[in-house]
Amino acid sequence: MSEESPYWIEGTVPETPTPAEYPQPWKTTSVIGRRMARVDAYERVSGTAVYPSDVILPGMLYGAILRCPHARARVLSVDTASSKAMPGVHAVITASTPEADIPWAYRRGPESRLFPTLCQHEGEAVAAVAAETPQQAADALRTIRVNYEILPHVADQETSSGPKSPKIWDGGNELPARPPYQRGDIDTGFSEADIVLERTFTTACEIHAPMETHGCVAQWDGDRLTLWESTQGVFAVQARVAEILGLPLSKVRIVGHYMGGGFGSKLQAGKYSIIAPMLARLTARPVKLFLSREENMLCVGNRPPSRMTLKAGVKKDGTLTALAMDTLSTPGAYAVSGYGLEDWQIRDLYTVPNVRTSSRFVYINAGPARPFRAPGHPQGSWALEQMMDDLAEALGMDPIAFRLKNIPSVSQARGGKPYTTTGLKECLTEGAATFNWETARSRPAQKSHLKRGVGMGACLWIAGGGGPPSTAIVKIFADGSVNLNLGASDIGTGTKSVMAMIVAEELGVDPHAIQIEHADTATTQFATPSGGSKTIPTESPAVREAAYAVRRRLIELAAEQHELNVEDLGLATGAVISKSDPTATFPITELEGLQKRGLVMGIGYRGPNPEDVAITPFAAQFCEVEVNTRTGEIGVLSFLGAHDSGRVMNRLTYDNQVFGGITMGIGLALTEERILDQATGKMVNANLHDYKIPTALDVPAEMTSLPIDPHDEQCNTTGAKGLGEPVTIPTAGAIANAVFHATGVRITQSPITPARFLEAQAAQAKEV
Amino acid sequence: MAKKPTTKGREHDGVTRRGFIGTVGVGALGAATVGTRRAEAVPEITTPEAMVQIGLTINGRIHRLLVEPRWTLLFTLRERLGLTGTKVGCERGECGSCTVLIDGQPRYACMTLAVEAEGSQITTIEGLMDGEALGDVQQAFVNEDAFQCGFCTPGQIMAAEGLLQANPSPSNEEIRKGMSGNLCRCAAYHHIVRAVDSAADGRRKGDNR
């Protein structure tokens, strides 16, 4: 894994051929950029969309997994005799079942087993059952008797490597050290500074908590396996399942037409993706296996906690001279993915000649981290954007003016590669203007115990430029109707709708009339999982290329048939038209070449990105909060997101993405925290009542999306960059800055619960 | 209702859960309709003989079926009747993905036993359709893009429908309150509030119904 591909590709990076001819950037568009209702909206609001957890097959059984209730324990024995005899139970599997006695490898770090003898976190799989109803399956789990030897555990990353901590792995609790990132000379940088500040920031562990839990339905048809899986990437699941079950890729079909949210936690197959087919094979029946909410909270990913000590040096005129950050985080009990990258904002967001960052990672007995919407970035932003606010305060500068002083034109962390475009400055200035920053900032403080304040934060996202591979196919049939085929999943970001708009733009057809086949390994083309804010910049050029190929072919057919010059022809609604002769139109349905063949097909590939440039989305967010200094309650009153994610493809889904990302960031700032009981190592809030994700009452009444489009003609043929992750990166830091502006209290620990605010306020009052 | 024939294993798991559902989850509706069904200790394991015949009125149509007393309305709707528009999010009354209308009130179908719902009018997302045409709240959700992954959406729409039936002219604050029992991790709330507002507006103007 390179630093620049944070999480979506394992092993060899496949490539697709470079297109022979790139379409030129759109000068004007008639469909792209509109506010368009989704092409699959009907299915999603009517209840007819079949999500994987909705699949019901004849004779289907229900699977369930028995999970270790201890933070760390050795399984001494598992007695399944009475569970096997229970009514409705068809199969019980454990580590002693030959088929299930298999290793379970994560990308790095220690290996485990499908059903490990050494359970390293609460919720490790110990056994699984298949029964005729989920209730019978739950009954069967309750009658399995497991004899555990409870072992000492580690529930806190702060003490994990301390002398009193038990060694949870033979190799120790520390992950292998990574060399620090360095540029310039950090000591020189600090010696040149007029002001040096240092603070330690922490962020709590967050759980992805998608509304559809992880799981799948497995069905065998002879030696062919079909899995309906709730996933962000059907091909990633296919590869893992085929590898573990020893099946040819061609015999493993993964279907993921709809899925109920992932946020990074569903980029890969889970143990359920293997256990369900195993149970299905043993019982000769289809098996549905979806995790409970508690299992979801414990086992399938999190944004790990972080402690970041950030030191910054700045000259009196506001020039940054040095940034240094030491980070401590944990991947959980296993090194799966989704930890690290806290320092990317520090490395790359502002012009700083001297930077040094180092990260330490330690194991604890908790569920493994997985990539969570911009891994590492909101954490690093929490630290950096608050530090920028502190520095501005110390300098007596406006926070925006200070940031504007330090805007880079090149990616310093990528060896000085220039950005194809950067809208960071415009995000700051236009965002501030629309938000009325100066007026809001200079409002006199209230006398009441209710204090209002405004704050802001900026960010970039490490990826978001997309890249190969991707293959898309567009077909036009003899009657002029169109079919689009691509492998990518639509995880709720509106991928299908945007791709339909691209085809519509090129072919002059109604985007809602385009039939889309996607996210099915048997019927669509290879695609990487939808994650990393890369789906639109990856898939859109391939789809445009495919549509463009169809367009060219239709024009050629018209030129051949009517002996016309290709250069003079274009395509409008349902017809080839002559540019020079407005009266000459040739309906597509009357093209002989199309009628004889029945089909014209275009294949589009995602070519490589331009070399020696960096493609990066930028953003700035602004907010107003009201703090009740008596109760510590914080209300977010308004938010504005100014985002440079390149071209706006669908303004309606774009805005929705901005508001959704901000809302998730509000959760990080104010409410979300996995709480592990230190004495037992168990998670005490493994449910949606005690683990608090934002509700409709937590979003500001006033939210504004302000797209900044710098017209990037270099990044790819559609000019679009990623949006889904930047929208949640600067939010929490902006809120903390607004709380500071309102109250003068700097909260460095997320989430800012009422108790935490009151404690900090009291501590500060004591100091003064 | 049949007597429970078997009681295996530890009893407290079943009793605790049942006690919780009976006293907390269903509220007024439970008190009105549960009657004798709640009084008995629940065995941990039920056998097919323990099934009871009930009739559920769903979207205006009566479905007669055999259920285990412990089956939730959610499970029965989805896995026995194939009405999978109602989604499973937590099965513990926290997320609202399974919201349906019971006698016009938005209720979590995961916190309602199928046997408790007998005699009530149950409306699911499928029941808001007029044939293949979307209902007005559904259409408002389309127009305002009031969802992303769409998984919580049927529950959101049912909550909105219940809100509008009780309060045809909700203020923005009342909408936010009325929708706050339905979690959306994609956080399409801003658009959801707009959609509910626009649906209310449409009804007042008589655009639909």
- Count of discrete structural domains of chain B: 2
CATH third-level topology of the largest domain in chain B: Ubiquitin-like (UB roll)
* Structural class by secondary-structure content of chain B: alpha+beta
Rounded radius of gyration of chain A (Å): 27 Å
Taken from the alpha-carbon principal axes, the silhouette of chain B is globular
The CATH architecture classification of the largest domain in chain A is: 2-Layer Sandwich
The total tally of domains of chain A equals 3
Q: What's the rounded overall pLDDT mean of chain B?
A: 83
Note poorly predicted spans of chain A.
Answer: none
What is the rounded distance between the termini of chain A? 49 Å
CATH class of the largest domain in chain A: Alpha Beta
Helix and strand pattern of chain B: HHEEHEEEHHHH
As an assembly, this protein is: heterodimer
Categorize the overall geometry of chain A. globular
Biggest chain pair interface: A-B, 66 and 68 residues
Question: Which consecutive residue ranges of chain B, at least 5 long each, have pLDDT under 50?
Answer: 1-43
Structural class of chain A: alpha+beta
Layout of strands and helices, then pairs:
The complex is a heterodimer of chains A (768) and B (209).
Chain A: H1 41-46, E1 61-67, E2 73-79, H2 81-84, E3 89-94, E4 103-104, E5 112-113, E6 118-119, E7 125-131, H3 134-143, E8 145-150, E9 181-183, H4 186-191, E10 195-203, E11 215-221, E12 224-229, H5 234-245, E13 252-255, H6 272-283, E14 287-290, H7 293-299, E15 306-314, E16 320-332, H8 344-348, E17 354-363, H9 377-395, H10 399-404, E18 410-411, E19 417-418, H11 424-435, H12 437-441, E20 450-460, E21 471-477, E22 482-486, H13 495-507, E23 515-518, H14 535-562, E24 569-572, E25 575-578, E26 585-587, H15 592-597, E27 599-605, E28 618-628, E29 634-644, H16 651-670, E30 702-707, H17 731-743, H18 754-767
Parallel strand pairs in A: 1-14, 12-13, 16-17, 22-23, 29-30
Antiparallel strand pairs in A: 1-7, 2-6, 2-8, 3-7, 4-5, 9-17, 10-15, 11-12, 11-14, 15-16, 18-19, 20-28, 21-22, 21-27, 24-25, 25-26, 28-29
Chain B: H1 12-25, H2 27-33, E1 52-58, E2 61-67, H3 73-80, E3 99-102, E4 105-108, E5 121-123, H4 136-144, H5 153-166, H6 172-178, H7 189-205
Parallel strand pairs in B: 1-5
Antiparallel strand pairs in B: 1-2, 3-4, 3-5
